[in-house]
Amino acid sequence: MTEEQGDGLTIAVFEGTTHQRYWIFTQERLAELRAEANETACADVNEWTNKLRRAGSEEQQPDVVLGPSPGKKARTECEESGVQVDCITLQEEQIIQDYYLEGVFSLSNKLKLPANVETTAITFYKRFYLYCSAMDYHPKDIMFTVLWVACKVEHYPSRYINAQKVVLNENSREFSFDAPAFADHGNIPIEHLLRLEQVLLQVLKYHLMVHHPFRPLRGFLEMWTKRSDSMKLADDVKSKIEEKATKLLRDWMKSDILLILHPSEIALCALRHTCAKAKMEAAFDMFLKDAIGSSAESVGRVYEAIEGNLAAHKQRLKGEQLKTEATRINAKLQGCSNPEKERSHPQFALLEEIKRKEREAAKEAKNLRIAQEQREQEMRLLGIDGGR
């Protein structure tokens, strides 16, 4: 969606989009959603663990129907006779997700992806783990999946389409846009990459348009350079400010601000912060008031919210500490992953086989029912009594 501004600039319309209606939250709501995802995953893991334990004790074969996943309304407490699995905590969820979020940035740098593709992937990653847990789907697999889908959504890989399959390595800076090449690099079987793509789309409710702060950032700078008064921005200064503000925005994307604030608000805050560093705060405030009709105080209030979010983010583990804790949690995940969803679980293949047989049985039953109905209809047309 776009609309024309009076000066001829075209900007993205944010109000009324799926991004604005469904993916902007308060900080408190984000915490609630993540807690619910962890609680539901713990309930599901405990239910499935006890189902599999009971199935094993009764020496049931893969033909047995274990039933569907318990779902969101599953009880968090198991039966008294059931096994309590040592699930990962909400804090551990945050650590393992942060670790692989850094992996999204790292792989994006390796591929030399533009800021819009990188930010779309990061946004998809954060949205996904509002409703799912690392116990459901391992963040390493989701890391590759969000990059794969973001590249397609942003139409970026068209310039890299190559008939030859290119597997990324230390000396490679491009990739061919085909699922096998991407799956090989991520060490993900192609069927699982495509399966996770569908899972991701469902969790995102097929809301794939992400509004980034980079576009309004460029729009505001373009407006500033087109001013006719003495406060207009010189082109060389504009380039330096844009470069520094873009770098600042990329750092901010590691926090939750894109799930909380309007992209234009984020862009204005990044501009003001960058201009303040360059001793141009007064000039920016003048432009802000005259050209946009906003005040430094209103932008300052938004920046306070950003600072609060960034301060909380800075308290999280970084570097070697993050890596050490992520290694420990990865080991713990081996004993508490969801066997119905997470492919690393030893029973995942068994349950996939059960579901495959159930689908085939349902399809066969449907075909038999259709055939029976067709026979009965033919007999009625011929005037034959099926009961004789």
TrEMBL record:
Positions of the Cyclin N-terminal domain: 104-208
Highest taxon, organism lineage: Eukaryota
Gene3D superfamilies noted in UniProt: Cyclin-like
CDD domains listed in its UniProt record: CYCLIN_CCNH_rpt1, CYCLIN_CCNH_rpt2
Record domain Cyclin C-terminal: where: 212-297
Gene Ontology process terms (BP): regulation of transcription by RNA polymerase II
Keyword Transcription on entry: no
Keyword set, alphabetical order: Cyclin
Protein name: Cyclin-like domain-containing protein
Record carries keyword Signal: no
Molecular functions per Gene Ontology: cyclin-dependent protein serine/threonine kinase regulator activity
InterPro entries: Cyclin-like_sf, Cyclin/Ssn8, Cyclin_C_2, Cyclin_N
